[in-house]
User: Fold this.
Amino acid sequence: MRSSSTRDLHELPKFRDGLTFLYVEHASIEQEAKAIAIYNKSGSSLVPVAALGTLMLGPGTRITHAAIKALSENGVTTVWVGEDMTRYYSSGTGETRSARNIIRQATVWADSEKHMMVVIRMYRKRFIELLPQGLDLRQIRGREGVRVRETYAFWSRETGVTWNGRNYDRKDWHESDPINRSLSTGASVLYGLCHAAIVSSGFSPALGFIHTGKQLSFVYDIADLYKSEILIPAAFQAVAQDSQCAEQNTRLKIRQRFKETRLLDRIVDDIESLFEGFTQQNGGDTDEQYQSDAAMPGQLWDPVSEVSGGVDYGSDDTGENT
Assistant:
């Protein structure tokens, strides 16, 4: 992997240059020029797709094929979610066509020693102070639990919002207290942004290192790097401002925090830093190979080195394209 100063747009998509996210519900979306047009009872709005990172589609949303095509071509990750982004249903693909990073991720994931190194790196990123050397994983988890509890307690004191612990039921959403609903709403936004960054950078959202067993395990891993800094303060401040509109205010405040902390830049760089120093024998395909034909087959696996795909190896000169 080249250093950040020499990355190009084919190797690392322009996700970091986009807006944070856009959530739409009860509206129709169509493609218009180099933008998408959103129509609802209030009228219409144009959104330039080149400046968008993630589009979240809530209930009552209709979108045309042309709009999806325009979003995909500009590297926008489209995510289908539940009301107020409290559930994730499905998502589109990212902009990169290279499998290099997902192969790299899978190689490290499958190696127990390297896997542990990534886990330790993830935990270290959560702490302001350096973790003492020699701690085992159980000890680090214990320190992490204390850190999270102290963060909740701190923001409860700062805002005056009562905190009785993380407790909510998706099946009975409105029975939860405002702070738990706000935390869940903000988490959905953060997950969507991290998911878009992961997919757009060519990694797998399913191959988690701390979390495991879910299609979004790696999304949860990455989102946990920023919850104490971004999500928790935004949720408590939103409830303190107006508990009746806390969920809407959480979305607004977390969007502002994304901008203030330049989170788009940080997510991509943080993901890369987790795999720094890990290389693979076979580098995988590069996006440059696909620019002339997106349907072009990739390389063929070989125990010595990868060989070109799309070639008839049954011919005499093994040079005839299939």
